[in-house]
Fold:
Amino acid sequence: KLGAYKGIEVKKADAEVTEEDLNEALQKEREKNARLVTVDDRAAEIGDSVKIDFDGSIDGVHFDGGKGENYPLVLGSGSFIDGFEEQIVGHKTGDSFDVNVTFPEEYHAKELAGKPAVFACKLLEIQRKDLPELNDEFASEISQFETLDEYKADLKKQLEEAKAKSAAAQNENNVVEKVVENAELALPAPMVEMQCEQMLDDYARRMQSQGLPLEQYLQYTGMTVEKLKEQFRPQAERNLKTRLVLEEVVKAENIAVSEEAIDAEIAKMAEAYKIAPEKMKEYVGAEQREELAMDLKIQEAVDFLVAEAKLQ
Structure:
């Protein structure tokens, strides 16, 4: 049962690009185009790129995966166990030293989880980032613009477009969330279970595409299928509630989409899959076409709710 859904009052998302935003973007560009310069006259610091040899042991016994040679590491990146990188700080090139750490209780290798380890390390090389100066030369090297002012103006325009898009998405989310809160509905348990199953299948496919079968992932992490499904449950319930409420808005407002709009969406799908539009139409059956139509109606419903909302 729908509650109030028109004239919803929400705080308008900020879409302004500040000078600080622009300076951060410029700094990121400097970081991306930085040169690494070998350092011989000082100790390693957070932010440096180093190369190390290391050999780990627990109670004097070496373990699988605990050894590395000429290993590249950015100090402060959090790539290693907590406390490891910080103990390299202060050492100079050529230094040999021990690093003492404790593996996390939830570490993927169960035989190491929660255990203290000692890594015998040797610091082979220290490199610092040499950031380019912000000037016309820098602008001309990384862009099609000749001056820094021109480049900054273009970068600000890009930031404004990105922030406007992000703000629009945030406004949509905030309005829809409020409309869902105002509605009364009870989710049938089998519907939630089915959504959890679908989310689990999607997750398994993503893991498989990265070369890690779900069974192997579960083994590494100590998770179970049921625990994973329980993690997905809150999101599954949110997804279902949102979908059902928006479907009800579609009915309440008699929102319809034309056959042309559906065909246009199929044409977009055809382009994405590099298939001729007419061929894609053959693949899309009546049921899929109906689902596609409902997806378009729901987006129309979202647009309607935002247009009716009071963004303050």
In short: The chain has nine helices and seven strands. The beta strands are 9-10, 35-38, 49-58, 61-74, 96-102, 116-130, 310-311. The chain has a mean pLDDT of 93. The CA atoms of residues 81 and 193 lie 37 Å apart.
